[in-house]
């Protein structure tokens, strides 16, 4: 339901939501008059509050209480009344630049540390996914002999994620094994062939390699390599290959919204046992929408399709390798969150990761 608010009604809604976020207490007209410079009578403020309540943007927990924002009220607040906090965005970028060591750490360690850093800054649960390997592109391929009859295929993506798998060496038609010296000569040549044809391609593209270009003496490897690469694609596209690094659960559960034990248990069960259910939400690319300037997705309360999250807000954005979205950053907290800061945290982190990966 779309509600048209005049300037005063917008100011009263913004003040009410901001005050409730800061205090976690229902907001009355007296508090608004005393703490915000409206230059109007308390009766006028009460009239605005009444209109906002009838419009479904505020509600009263009980008759004698002040007003509390509804999910619809938060939605108007986020979409129309606030902007991301630029100071918070600068703090995030500076902190990540200082704390993360891109030269000596693995990507997994970097994203774990980034998640912990962001939860400390935001006060909310931070979620960061590893780059999607189905989208990440191949950086290097190497064939390494580890036993007389076995070779390891090692693949490194441009996000520095490594995959490996083993293959049995093909035998001669008479059943004998190719001699070790010949293998030692051929593996570097095969590795060079694979690198020259596959470097820069996504894992989903490598099945299109024209194996007929292999010299006749190497054709016996073609079927084994085709099978290995197909297996690598299947494994890299499985949910296991896209872990979600999470931090800040203990802090956010101290919020008054999570005082009910059953509510906490269902949320923790989702986060700890079924985190992959969150992936379609946090990896939903905001750049694909038609909303001008939209850089994040914000799921507020009952907008969340997952029931345990319907007292929470999830803010997420993708980070990119060039123009391709490869991973996501999100924060999860109560609907009573400081949206200006949370949105800034997500945007700044997505921008930072996009820059360093590109």
Task: Please outline what is shown here.
This protein is of the alpha+beta class and 358 residues long.
Instruction: Please outline the major beta sheet.
Output: 5 strands, antiparallel
Q: How does the helix and strand content classify structurally?
A: alpha+beta
CATH architecture of the largest domain: 2-Layer Sandwich
CATH fold assignment of the largest domain: Beta-Lactamase
Sketch the topology as an H/E string, one letter per element.
Answer: HHHEEHHHEEEEHHEHHHEEEH
Basic shape:
elongated
Q: Briefly, what CATH class of the largest domain?
A: Alpha Beta
Radius of gyration using CA atoms only: 27 Å
Q: Numbering strands along the chain, what is their spatial order in the largest sheet?
A: 7-3-10-9-8
The helix fraction, in percent, is 40-55%
SSE blueprint:
Elements: H1 7-23, H2 29-35, H3 42-54, E1 58-59, E2 68-69, H4 71-81, H5 86-99, H6 107-122, E3 125-129, E4 138-147, E5 150-157, E6 162-168, H7 180-198, H8 219-236, E7 244-247, H9 249-252, H10 261-273, H11 279-282, E8 297-300, E9 312-321, E10 324-334, H12 339-357
Antiparallel strand pairs: 1-2, 3-7, 3-10, 4-5, 5-6, 8-9, 9-10
Can you walk through the features of this model?
With 358 residues, the protein is α+β, with helices and mostly antiparallel strands. Helices cover 43% and strands 18% of the residues. It folds into 3 domains: 7-81, Orthogonal Bundle (Arc Repressor Mutant, subunit A), CATH 1.10.10.10; 86-132 and 242-357, Beta-Lactamase; 138-239, Enolase-like, domain 1 (2-Layer Sandwich), CATH 3.30.390.10. It is built from 12 helices and 10 strands. A 5-stranded antiparallel beta sheet has the order 7-3-10-9-8. Strands 4-5-6 form a 3-stranded antiparallel beta sheet. It has a two-stranded antiparallel ribbon with strand order 1-2. The mean pLDDT is 84.
């Amino acid at each position: 339901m779309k509600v048209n608010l005049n300037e005063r009604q917008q100011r009263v809604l913004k003040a009410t939501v901001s005050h409730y976020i800061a205090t976690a207490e229902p907001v009355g007209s007296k508090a608004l008059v005393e703490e915000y410079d409206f230059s109007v009578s308390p009766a006028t403020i009460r009239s605005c509050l009444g209109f906002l309540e009838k419009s479904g943007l505020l509600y009263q927990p009980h008759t004698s209480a002040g007003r509390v924002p509804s999910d619809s009220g938060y939605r108007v607040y986020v979409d129309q009344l606030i902007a991301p906090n630029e100071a918070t965005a600068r703090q995030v970028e500076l902190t990540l630049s200082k704390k993360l060591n891109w030269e000596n750490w693995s990507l997994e360690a970097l994203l774990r540390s980034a998640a912990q850093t962001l939860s400390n800054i935001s006060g909310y649960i931070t979620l960061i996914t590893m780059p999607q390997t189905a989208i990440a592109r191949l950086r290097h391929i190497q064939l390494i002999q580890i036993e007389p009859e076995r070779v390891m295929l090692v693949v490194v993506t441009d996000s520095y994620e490594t995959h490996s798998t083993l293959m049995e060496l093909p035998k001669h038609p008479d059943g004998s094994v190719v001699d070790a010296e010949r293998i030692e000569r051929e593996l570097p040549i095969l590795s060079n062939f694979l690198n020259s044809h596959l470097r820069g391609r996504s894992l989903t593209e490598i099945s299109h390699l024209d194996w007929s270009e292999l010299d006749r003496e190497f054709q016996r490897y073609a079927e084994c390599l085709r099978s290995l690469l197909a297996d690598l694609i299947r494994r890299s596209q499985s949910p296991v290959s896209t872990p979600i690094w999470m931090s800040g659960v203990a802090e956010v559960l101290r919020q008054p919204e999570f005082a009910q034990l059953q509510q906490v248990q269902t949320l923790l069960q989702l986060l700890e046992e079924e985190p992959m259910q969150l992936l379609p939400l946090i990896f939903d690319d905001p750049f694909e929408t038609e909303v001008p300037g939209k850089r994040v997705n914000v799921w507020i309360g009952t907008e969340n399709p997952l029931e345990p999250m319907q007292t929470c807000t999830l803010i997420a954005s993708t980070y990119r390798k060039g123009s391709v979205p490869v991973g996501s950053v999100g924060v999860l907290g109560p609907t009573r969150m400081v949206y200006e800061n949370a949105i800034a945290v997500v945007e700044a982190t997505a921008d930072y990761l996009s820059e360093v990966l590109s």
